[in-house]
Amino acid sequence: MLDTLALRLDGRPAAPSTVSRKRAILFNAVEYAVERGHLAGNPLTSMKWRAPKLAEAVDPRVVINHGQARALFSAVRQLGSGPPLVAFFAVMYYAALRPGEAVDLRKDALALPESGWGELYLSTSAPAAGRSWSESGNRREPRQLKHRSVDEVRVVPSPPELTTILRDHLVEHGTTSDGRLFRGARGGALSESHYGRLWAAARFAALTFDEAASPLARRPYDLRHAAVSTWLNGGVPATQVAQWAGHSVNVLLRVYAKCIAGQDDALRRRVERALRDGRS
């Protein structure tokens, strides 16, 4: 059972957080069986089992630079159904929103000046869970932010370029009746298949053949990775980056350690200076 819960439905290894959650559920189920007298004891308490290790760190090859991001957004704008979703991809790249957070982004969550830095006030997310798992019967159902309590708000800065993109989006495309910025082809919730196909077409149009064949920004989620990597490489303290991205500092540094460019050279220069000082 433990080996099985460490796998996804397609047979590939599950994420460590998923394995941990499923093991906890199994443990509690077995404890309940013990309480009901169906088992003499819980074998999980004495079993030496560890989930197979799975790399959590982000592959630095997926991270795009600002020039590539602009080219991709321009390509999205040229596609038939692309213009209304330029801002959708932009909030992931400039503000590190998760796709579910971007899908449920609403006008009342925006604090945008005419130009310059603005702010996004995030309080809900609508990840794709499937109709069978939602109370409403819809594939997406708004809920609190990941790792946050109900009604807790995460404030994320909006760089000047994103502020302009969002203001233009509101003028050109407006919102749904309930204030959502982004919608599907028929006006409902934006689906992964819709924006996924659009992104795949934009990569083919904007990137070179070798880049398109590589892991570079292969998934829209990789835009979030690029945002967090940009903040870290720009010198923003890890505690602040973690707050903006909705991570713990521990997870942030473990997942994005390989994406912090230039650290090795800087550290080596510090060691050289220390060695020189020691000789003087």
TrEMBL record:
Residues 129-148 are annotated as: Disordered. Residues 58-272 form the Tyr recombinase domain. InterPro entries: DNA_brk_join_enz, Integrase-like_cat_sf, Integrase_catalytic, Tyrosine_recombinase_XerCD. Gene3D superfamilies: Intergrase catalytic core. SUPFAM superfamilies: DNA breaking-rejoining enzymes. Keywords: DNA recombination. This is Tyr recombinase domain-containing protein.
